[in-house]
Amino acid sequence: MRGLFDGYRKMEESGEVWFAGANTDSGFKGCYPDFADEGKLERLYIIKGGPGSGKSTMMKRLADEAERRGYPVARYLCGSDPDSLDAVVLDGRIVMLDGTPPHAVESGAPGSVGELVDVSRFWNSGKLEKRRKEIEALAALKAADYASGTRWLAAADAVVREELHRAEELFLREKAEKTARRLIERLGKPEKNGGGILYRYDHAVTMRGRAALSTIELGAARKFVIEDACGTAALFLDLLAREIEIAGFAAEFGLLPLGRRIAGIRVKDAAFYVGTPGDGDAVIRTRRFVSGAPRGPLRLASKVRESCLSAADDALRSAAKHHFALEEIYKDAMDFDALHEAEDTLRNSIMDRLAR
Fold first, then answer.
1. Which residues pair with 23 in a beta bridge?
2. Which of 44, 106, 127, 290 is paired with 7 by a 20 to 30 Å CA distance?
3. Which residues in 31-67 are b (16+ Cβ under 10 Å) and which e?
4. CB within 8 A of 217, min separation 6: which ones?
5. Phi, psi of 258, rounded to the nearest 5 degrees
6. DSSP 286
7. Distance in angstroms (rounded) separating the CA atoms of residues 263 and 286
8. Apex 216 CA angle, 191 and 245, nearest 5
9. How many other CB atoms are there within 10 angstroms of residue 70's CB atom?
10. Is residue 256 left, alpha or beta, with left meaning phi > 0 and alpha meaning psi from -120 to 50?
11. Rounded to an integer, what distance in angstroms lies between the CA atom of residue 155 and that of residue 238?
């Protein structure tokens, strides 16, 4: 039986890396408000421009330079194209992000905090105007494929709710709660400055297929790997999350794109996540919280959910063809030499600001 956490390929990423958002059952859902709150930042740089106009490359170069200079960097990948960046956070106080749809952003304090980085001034509008019909046709095809993908994700989400309902019938909740509380006790006391939960997508259904990140495991001295049984890993993670909040710990919850189900938890020096255990990892087998064997409806739901997700994968891969065709059109219209010259000036200005 294919589980809720199966089917995601692990990406080889190092450092603090998350998805900036995800394609979900109700469309694209972003996390910008969680890490790009102007009230908490020194500076917010909002990039505006078309596909293929160099936004992601600009952020990659900025992040790499900040890291070379010893500043902590968090990277936020595009939830539709994990090969691209949607945002970078430098030293927790400066953010640069892609402010174009589907994650459109406008500054509430332009000039004083927010700064617009408009890369459209480096493209040749005449070239783009000549290809207007092509651009409009590709954009319409991409939008139609995304709409189809969203409908399939909505269908998958409905099946997930049914799966969890069926899993609950088998779940020995009281026994699982006792285990969750014992695990939380092993964490010691919460931080003196109080708790706070950060929600981050570490799984995404993208134009390149389903992908997952390993950031939850980053820096964890203790790793608790949860082996799923009959879909109860999601129920057990919900229990852990609730106990962590009640205890007042600061923590990060990694999310699945379907129903914002928790896929992993990072708290203090520990990580709890569904996966394959390595040497020295503690294993939590949720089979011990299951009464009976999977029943017909649960097995059927697993198959239907996977079929819906596969259809969503196909729709998004089709969208990718149109998206990357659009990128090529805009790349052809860009003056990248002029863009890179302006980018160098901006990057030096940001480095100076970081050094203050």
1. 28
2. 290
3. bbeebbebeebebbbbbbbbbbbbbbbbbebbbebbe
4. 223, 264, 266, 271, 273
5. -90, 115
6. G
7. 14
8. 40
9. 8
10. beta
11. 22
**Full-model pTM:** 0.94
The DSSP line for 231-253 is: THHHHHHHHHHHHHHHHT-EEEE
Q: What are the residues whose beta carbons fall under 8 Å from the beta carbon of 306, sequence distance 6 or more?
A: 2, 7
Q: Which two tokens stand for residue 279?
A: 């040497």
Per-residue pLDDT of the chain (356 residues; tens, 9 = 90+): 788 999 999 998 788 999 999 999 999 999 999 899 999 999 999 999 999 999 999 999 999 999 999 999 999 999 999 999 999 999 999 999 999 999 999 999 999 999 999 999 999 999 999 999 999 999 999 999 999 999 999 999 999 999 999 999 999 999 999 999 999 999 998 887 766 899 999 999 999 999 999 999 998 999 999 999 999 999 999 999 999 999 999 999 999 999 889 999 999 999 999 988 888 899 999 999 999 877 788 889 999 999 999 999 999 999 999 999 999 999 999 999 999 999 999 999 999 999 99
The tokens describing 22, both together, are 């995800």
User: CA 315, CA 13: separation in Å to the nearest integer?
Assistant: 26
CB of 5 closer than 8 Å to CB of 256: yes
Question: Would you say 316 and 207 are in contact if contact means Cβ atoms under 8 Å apart?
Answer: yes
For residue 42, CA distances in Å to 110, 319, 350 come to: 12, 37, 11
Cα 291 from Cα 88, distance rounded (Å): 46
Task: Please answer whether residues 220 and 280 qualify as being in contact, where contact means their C-beta atoms are separated by less than 8 angstroms.
Answer: no
Q: Give per-residue burial for 247-280: e unless 16+ CB within 10 Å, then b.
A: bebbbbbbbbbbbbbbbbbbbbebbbbbbeeeee
Return the half-sphere exposure (C-beta side, CA atoms, 13 A cut-off) of residue 92.
1
Amino acid in position 124: N
Joined tokens for residue 81: 């194209």
Q: Which two tokens stand for residue 283?
A: 């294993």
